[in-house]
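Our consortium's second objective concerns turning raw sequence data into structural hypotheses that experimental partners can test. To show how far this objective has progressed, the report includes one record in full. It was chosen at random from the queue rather than selected for favorable results. The single chain below, 136 residues long, was entered without modification.
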Amino acid sequence: MNHWILKTDADIYPFDQLEKERKTVWDGVSNAVALKHIRNMATDDPVLIYHSGEGKELVGLARISSPPYSDPKRDDPKLMVVDIEVGRRLPKRVPLAAIKADPFFADLGLVRMSRLSVSPVPEPQWKKLLVMAGVG
């Protein structure tokens, strides 16, 4: 099982909307590295949802609910999507500043490649992020 951070702009697709819809297609990814990560996702992989732009913080949990598949809205088989299902809102939001302030996260994709919309999270860092969010 892999762990992931998925980034979204809070003014485009906020976690509130995922809570209302319960499930969505995670699409709109075109970066080659992010697409590689999507291809490595599996059903039931856990996800942290991160609001970029205003807020810059981890806000909720979700899970991958489908294997990766070609984006049905785009005529390019390289553009992959997955379905995700809402988990729950984090008890405490985790700001990017708090993550960056901890040397334990120096190699976390969210810190190293902050513009990347999909990044894997190693298990030890995943556990610590959950503790910081009041879940672990």
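The partners drew two points from this record. The two ends are 18 Å apart (CA to CA). The chain has a mean pLDDT of 96. Both points have been shared with the crystallography group to help prioritize constructs.
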